[in-house]
Amino acid sequence: MTTPATTQVGGPLDQGPPAEPRIGSRNRTGDKIFSGTATAAGITILVTLAGIAAFLLYEGFPALVAAPEDVPGGEGFWPYVQPLLFGTVLAAVIALIIAAPLSIGIALFISHYAPRKIAAPLGYLVDLLAAVPSVVYGLWGIFFLAPQLVPVFQWLENTLGFLPFFEGPTSATGRTMLTAGIVLAVMILPIMSGVNREVFLQTPRLQEEAALALGATRSEMIRMTVLPFARSGMVSGAMLGLGRALGETLAVALVLSPAAVISFNLIGSTNSSTIAANIALNFPESSGLAVNTLIATGLVLFTLTFVVNFIARAVVARRKDFSGANA
Amino acid sequence: MAKRIDVKDLDIYYGSFRAVEGVTMSIEPRSITALIGPSGCGKSTFLRSLNRMHEVIPGARVSGSVILDGQDLYGAGVDPVSVRRHVGMVFQRPNPFPTMSIYENVVAGMRLNGRGTRKAAMDEVVEGALQGANLWNEVKDRLDRPGSSLSGGQQQRLCIARAIAVKPDVLLMDEPCSALDPISTLAIEDLMDQLKKDYTIVIVTHNMQQAARVSDRTGFFNIAGTGQPGKLIEMDETSTMFSTPSNQATEDYISGRFG
Amino acid sequence: MTTTTTPTDLTAAEASLSQGRLPRWSTPATVAAVVVLGALAILVLDAPVPLVVGLGVLALLVALPALAWVVEGRRRANDRMWTVLVTIAFALALLPLLSLMITVTQNGLARFDWEFLTTDMRGVLGEGGGALHAIVGTLIITGLATVISVPVGIMTAVYLVEYGRGRLARAITLLVDVMTGIPSIVAGLFAFALFSIFFGPSVRFGIGGAVALSVLMIPVVVRSVEEMLKLVPNELREASYALGVSQWRTIVRVVLPTAAAGIATGVTLAIARVIGETAPLLIITGSTNILNTDPVDGRMSSLPIFTYYSYTIPGVPPEFGVERAWAAALTLFLIVMLLNLVARVLSRIFGSPTSR
Ligand SMILES: Nc1ncnc2c1ncn2[C@@H]1O[C@H](COP(=O)(O)OP(=O)(O)OP(=O)(O)O)[C@@H](O)[C@H]1O
Ligand SMILES: [Mg+2]
Predict the structure, then answer these.
(1) With contacts defined as CB-CB under 8 Å, which chain B residues touch C74?
(2) Helix, strand, or coil here: A26?
(3) What is the pLDDT of residue C20?
(4) Which pLDDT does position B120 carry in this prediction?
(5) Which domain holds residue A248?
(6) List of domains in chain B
(7) Which residues lie at CB < 5 A from ion ligand 2?
(8) Would A27 be classed as within a structural domain?
(9) Ligand 1 pocket, B19 CB below 6 A?
(10) What percent of chain C is predicted at pLDDT more than 70?
């Protein structure tokens, strides 16, 4: 940060009002430069976003127009990206299905159930989950979670095997789509529960007391006032979580053992990869058109998350005085 | 319906702060009891302790007893939820549930008890409660509109309808008219006069004329200074309180306001 | 006056204020019983942990409301069930955190030693070696990203709070929010696409990683600084204007210093957020075995990348690589937790309102 050269205005605050209004050109110029810099910084954001789209398009374009047999997989770009897109959405949706109810529970616990004094530290603990690097999640997923889940998957196959999701045969390592989804769910819990917590706490106290005074129990009060009030906030929280899950790379890259398939089997050893994981796994060894292809898949991912996030934010923006960004 | 309340040696706390000290009073059934006193003397706090809404605030507690027709509200094994079912409350600012229609607002309390599943029975209760709250004629054609679409005075009467729809024994009102214009205020005062045939009503008000107009008995709360607990100074027939109060502080307060 | 239309009469249970109530110890006792049974199942029967946890949760979910139903009635049972559900949801969130901490510490301590912190991987095939190059790389890359992001972030926040009106400001606000959701791998691809235009398709260097991380870091900085600036009371600004101080001097001398502690907290959290990023660095900084301190010349390792490759390409025999991966994960974990702690302490000391 730049400290301005203190030329004539020593300590402006303790000097008292100047004898005449200071309309000197000095300050005008200073103001102009400063506000110009600030505006430029703001515009940098727009330029960066536009730049991301532009450069990805520029570098990804060759793959979009290349002859199908030159694209990795030999069938062209869209056949290449389809199973990846499928895997991306599948993993994210699994994560969302797991995380949505949990995040509501966590947020309610902190906002309406936990004793006031420990509520803030508890919220902080949940936020810590967001700070854990994804590569650490990946290792944890492989070495701790996956082996623990194998018997559960086995059980799912035996009892619910008639559903396509649990068809089996169960992966012996536990490194499956469902495992990846669970890891992703843990990773998006903090942002989702953070948004939910914030909207739950905004429920007007007067509404809550009205419900209690009618003889509602705590859960009835929550269903009468808190949840209806928070509906749009919860939707946008879920969208934000979905956006994160779609774009998460390393945890999935480490946990999944991928193949280029479209399969609804969540517990088998053949799983679709996700766009992000596929890029991470293949980029370092790629060259030529393969690089362009990966960048083009990145563009697809960027578009997808942009749309999801945009919707989430637009829903949030409709609520006044609310920001979900600090979760 | 309409039960009597006997309060005995009630101390009310926010954490370690004692907000109200040593209140003993009797509240007669089928009558209106007004509570007056300077700001911060604990009127709202006391009122909220009569249906155990006080303990909703973290760290808040009471000692002493509040007897509702022989049952101690703070006795062992008493469920605050059923206490509130018997002792209804109307708040200073109207607070209908914004996501519910007028109709749903009125039946909200009944739905909790799992009754009123029969549409015809519910319709009947809604009409009864809204007529009881003098609101029926104004809203009967738009029962499915949101409760928040009404004017402030109508909203407050909707809240009264919501409270009486569950047929409580007692109705507590904390400055129910302070957010309303004179016409709505009069409407609610008339309403209280009708309601006292069936209910025990306790009302907190800053408006001396209102206390004098509507209440049968009046209690005066006062506070010695900031940080001190509020106390019940005097309680008597309203006519006595406003003509010949026995306590100097009461007289000062009442005449100060009247003067 | 028709208040007395068909009074829906109270049932006997409702008429009394004191229905049956469970004693206070009933809940802790039930929980304790389930926990003991679960522990026995794991220790004695060697049952799989997730299965036991799942069944335990189910047991509580059934037992507590059922007990309440019998003694206290349907509504209370429902209320209990919500309490159990909500509490279990919270406990389930803490479970992975706890398990992460234990797993990382247990596995990481084996190689978390002096050699690990002070040597690089030059010529190491099996045993030994360290992450010095990765630690230094992480510090350089994150440091550069901070140098880029903090001024841009602060100035953008200043624009939004102090100057921004109208459509441009609204667009920037929305896009900053959208930018917080950009996948980290896309940020890496962006940096690669940008620099490969100038330096060719094999471009790999530290500064590229810093640019990629900045894309992720700037929106976080903007958001937190914006919030801090909004908390500076308007009276302060007006007092300063009333003295004839120009707007920019007011911002630099009054507004920013007032918000300084909050800004420091926000920046620290932003650093913590990007320091563990792996995906963008995988693409634009690559990986190397030796110490490289020049961010504009060649591949540069970093802790997350080191962790990743130590696991995926562990060398022969693989145990040593995997041990190094865990040690690096532990190092990273400690750095991130330390940064979070610093942020908390900062906001506690200066009483900034981030610590709600
Ligand atoms: N939630 C609370 N936490 C702590 N103290 C409180 C709380 N609510 C009220 N108090 C304190 O309790 C005392 C009594 O407050 P109360 O609201 O009952 O006064 P009141 O007589 O209703 O005043 P008013 O006429 O202004 O409504 C006051 O000193 C107040 O500061
Ligand atoms: Mg009050």
Answers:
(1) 114
(2) helix
(3) 67
(4) 82
(5) 32-326
(6) 5-94+171-254 (3.40.50.300)
(7) B 44
(8) no
(9) yes
(10) 92
Span C96-106, pLDDT tens digits: 989 999 999 99
Interface A–C counts its CB contacts (< 8 A) at 351
Q: What integer pLDDT is reported at residue B115 of this predicted model?
A: 57
Whole-number pLDDT of residue C185 = 93
Q: Note whether residue A23 is domain-resident.
A: no
Q: Given an 8 Å threshold on Cβ–Cβ distance, is B128 in contact with C3?
A: yes
Nearest residue, CB atoms, C159 vs list A42, A59, A243 = A42
- 8 Å CB contact of B194 and C3: yes
In a domain, A21, yes or no: no
Beta bridge partners of A293: none
CB contact under 8 A, A224 and B108: yes
Q: Does C12 touch chain B (CB under 8 A)?
A: no
Question: From the list A30, A59, A113, which residue is nearest C196 (CB)?
Answer: A59
Within a domain: residue A67?
yes
Q: What is the pLDDT of residue C146?
A: 96
Question: ipTM for the complex?
Answer: 0.87
**Which CATH number covers residue A62?**
1.10.3720.10
A114 in contact with B, Cβ within 8 Å:
no
Contacts of residue C17, defined as CB under 8 A and 6 or more positions apart, other chains included, come to B68, B71, B73, B75, B78, B79, B82, B83, B86
How many Å lie between the alpha carbon of C119 and the closest alpha carbon of chain A?
22
Q: What is the pTM of this model?
A: 0.84
Site from C64, C152, C227, C248 to mutate, A interface, most A CB atoms within 10 angstroms: C248
Enumerate domains of chain C plus CATH numbers. Answer: 26-108 (no CATH), 116-355 (1.10.3720.10)
Q: Based on the structure, what is the number of domains in chain A?
A: 1
> What is the Cα–Cα distance from B130 to B128, expressed in whole angstroms?
6
- Report the residue from C3, C6, C10 with minimal CB separation from B132: C3
β-bridge pairing B87-90 and B217-223:
unpaired
| pLDDT tens for each residue of C208-222 | 999 999 999 999 999
Average pLDDT over residues C66-88: 83
pLDDT attached to residue A183: 94
**Distance (Å) from the C-alpha of residue A307 to the closest C-alpha of chain B?**
29
Residues of C in contact with A131 (CB under 8 A): 272-273, 276, 336-337, 339-340
How far, CA to CA in Å, does A180 sit from each of A81, A95, A245? 19, 8, 10
